[in-house]
Amino acid sequence: MKFKLVNLLICVILASTYLLFSSQSSGKPYTPPNIIIILTDDMGYGDVSTFGGNFVKTRNIDRIAAKGLKFTQYYCGAPICSPSRASLLTGMYAGRWNFTTFLDTKRHNKNAEQADFLSVNAPSISRIFKGSGYVTGHFGKWHMGGGRDVKNAPKFVNYGIDEYASTYESPKPDPALTATNWIWSDKDSIKRWDRTRYFVDKTLDFMKRHKGKPCFVNLWPDDVHTPWVPRSGTEFNGKFPMNPEEETAFKKVLEEYDVQIGRLLDGLLEMGLSENTIIIFTSDNGPAPSFRGSRSGGFRGAKASLYEGGIRMPFLVSWPGHIPAGKIDNRSVLHATDLLPSLAKIAGITLPKNYASDGLDRSEMLLGKPTLRNRDLYWEYGRNDIAYNFPKGRDRSPRLAIRSGDWKLLMDSDKSKIELYNIVKDSKETNNLTAAEPIITTQLSQKLIAWWRSLPKLGAKI
């Protein structure tokens, strides 16, 4: 009798466990979370009001913060678009795939000592999620191969992307956005001021048609990159980029961008998808122009700079019921390469055995548990003075950087121009401590040069 009772209890426990994991509280079959990564183009830390920006009140972007977590120490993979995007897609430093600056013509890429496109041998977060049952989409800017005279870039499908709508700098530009075989034109059927709306519409349609299946979406608009062409069209003066003083146009574009983020959030809510969708909001690199540093949130530097203004980005993540709402994590250091292993862990995806991420599994941190980082971070921007002759002045940083704990060191690959900052106490990078901290300077410079030497080099000579 006792034996039968024990067996009965075991059966009850097993049945309860099965029901718990095979269905949600609503009784519907369990599905992994949808994931939408919103990667804004050239958005600075100081562009978003929840991060202290005061250009416009970004009420809808702030809604993501109100329902989720805000991270104040998130770093992109590079201070410029192509390598930054490659690091997020692969979970690896872009230099490992010969990406060092933005992709352009073959001549430019050769001058820059970099590849013409991201190798299909590189890992891809889209491909990994697709291989685990996700439907994948990419709506927005690509800039990892294709455009100009590069005609042999791999197609989207090679990176594990099922559906897409992209811009000129991609292997298959959307005709609605590229009437004149260029980045944008007033002849495009989708006008410059409606491009983010277009990408949001594509995302919502994709989510609606695949409702009931787990969806992974790169929503990568090309706002708020110049040229700023507001709906009225009166502020655009025909120059590229626009006059750095024309803040009115930027503010109107940012305001419209925030409206479209609101449309995305409202659309997911109307479809009943918001509760099981992870939304990540961030930027690929710092702003250009920065309006005297105001768009960089007070940090030194901007786009194309390894100072904080070029690589420290706004970062928000929400997932109702799983991520605490309205919290701020000032402690944890997060990097773009962390997203692939972290999101895979959250989604229950086993990474390929041969995958070697430069990032860390920070899933617990994304779910609300702050943790210190136990691995150094590295950056590279520029290998010569041919293709890397900007920015000018005080924002022009050395070409390599490492962050190790509270310390950040920058230098050139010939071991010159060394700068050391306690980035926790001196986030604006004003007090160079190389003379005061010779031991730390030596240790970090040795680590940094060893890392840089480990990267493949195309070695192009002009």
How are the SSEs ordered, and which strands pair?
Elements: H1 2-22, E1 34-40, H2 59-66, E2 68-75, H3 81-90, H4 106-111, H5 125-130, E3 135-140, E4 163-166, H6 195-209, E5 215-220, H7 247-270, E6 277-283, H8 308-311, E7 312-318, E8 327-329, E9 334-335, H9 339-347, H10 363-366, E10 377-380, E11 400-404, E12 407-411, E13 419-422, H11 438-454
Parallel strand pairs: 1-5, 1-6, 2-8, 2-9, 3-4, 3-5
Antiparallel strand pairs: 2-7, 6-7, 10-11, 11-12, 12-13
Helix pairs in contact: 2-7, 6-7
Describe this structure as you would to a colleague.
The protein is α/β, with parallel strands linked by helices. The protein folds into two domains: 34-366, Alkaline Phosphatase, subunit A (3-Layer(aba) Sandwich); 377-454, Arylsulfatase, C-terminal domain (2-Layer Sandwich). The chain has helices at residues 2-22, 59-66, 81-90, 106-111, 125-130, 195-209, 247-270, 308-311, 339-347, 363-366, 438-454, and strands at residues 34-40, 68-75, 135-140, 163-166, 215-220, 277-283, 312-318, 327-329, 334-335, 377-380, 400-404, 407-411, 419-422. The longest helix has 24 residues, at 247-270. It starts with a helix and ends in an 8-residue tail after the last helix.
Mean pLDDT level: 91
Shape descriptor: globular
The number of helical elements comes to 11
Using the 3D structure, state the CATH architecture of the largest domain: 3-Layer(aba) Sandwich
The string of secondary-structure elements, in order, is: HEHEHHHEEHEHEHEEEHHEEEEH
| CATH topology assignment of the largest domain | Alkaline Phosphatase, subunit A
Structural class category: alpha/beta
Q: How would you characterize the largest beta sheet?
A: 9 strands, mixed
Q: Return the CATH class of the largest domain.
A: Alpha Beta
Terminal CA distance reads 87 Å
The CATH superfamily of the largest domain is known as: Alkaline Phosphatase, subunit A
Give the proportion of residues in helices.
25-40%
Low-confidence stretches: 1-26
